[in-house]
Recover the amino acids of this structure.
């Protein structure tokens, strides 16, 4: 993936995260654009889910690898790696949420940010 100069840094990182998710066959990939929401905590949330804790962990690792390979950035914070039910990778302006399917349904992240612009991506 070649960085497009027109892309902001946060948009670029979100695209790298999406590519990492697609590499490990993450399901129902979406990107919430939070830039126009006054109280947002980041520019983008990238969200997907997988059927097993093993796949959730593999997706999170793939996202980290893709972003590090292109930008040499590590996540500012990581949570949920031990259990693999909901892993959060925080890149400050981009937050990646990798859920196990039942946890995604339970937490309903998309509903919490209903004012966000949503872009859907195909799984690879």
């Amino acid at each position: 993936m070649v960085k497009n100069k027109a892309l902001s840094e946060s948009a670029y990182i979100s695209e790298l995260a999406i590519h990492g998710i697609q590499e490990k066959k993450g399901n129902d990939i979406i990107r919430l654009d939070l830039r126009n929401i006054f109280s947002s905590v980041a520019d983008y949330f990238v969200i997907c889910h997988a059927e097993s804790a093993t796949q959730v962990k593999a997706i999170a690792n793939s996202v980290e690898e893709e972003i590090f390979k292109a930008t040499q950035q590590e996540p500012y914070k990581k949570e949920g790696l031990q259990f693999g039910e909901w892993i959060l990778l925080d890149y400050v302006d981009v937050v990646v949420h990798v859920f196990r399917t039942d946890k995604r349904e339970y937490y309903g992240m998309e509903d919490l940010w209903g004012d966000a612009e949503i872009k859907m991506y195909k799984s690879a």
